[in-house]
Design brief:
Low-confidence stretches: none
Largest sheet: 3 strands, antiparallel
Mean pLDDT: 91
Number of helices: 3
Structural class: alpha+beta
Distance between the termini: 42 Å
Order of helices and strands: EEEHHH
Strand order of the largest sheet: 1-2-3
Length: about 80
């Protein structure tokens, strides 16, 4: 029995995005190295926490990762709900 292309293909659990720091893990945008959801970073920033202060709240993150998360959130806000 032959299989048609795409039939039964498994979607990988982690998929790359255009960002070097952000991956989709089961469809949820997360920072690659820490696994912290982009939405969590975005919500901190939106609640008034300064971008440079977020690594103090989420010590696993660098300022570069915070910037990447906020940039990704801006470009893909529809994925954050």
């Amino acid at each position: 029995m032959s299989r048609k292309p795409g039939e039964g293909d498994v979607v990988p659990r982690v998929q790359p995005t255009e960002s070097d720091f952000v991956v989709l893990h089961q469809g949820i945008p997360r920072l690659r190295d820490s696994g912290i959801a982009v939405r969590e970073v975005f919500q901190l920033w939106r609640s008034g926490v300064n971008m440079a202060d977020i690594p103090g709240r989420l010590p696993a993150l660098s300022v570069a990762e915070v910037f990447a998360a906020l940039r990704y959130a801006r470009d893909h806000e529809d994925q954050l709900s």
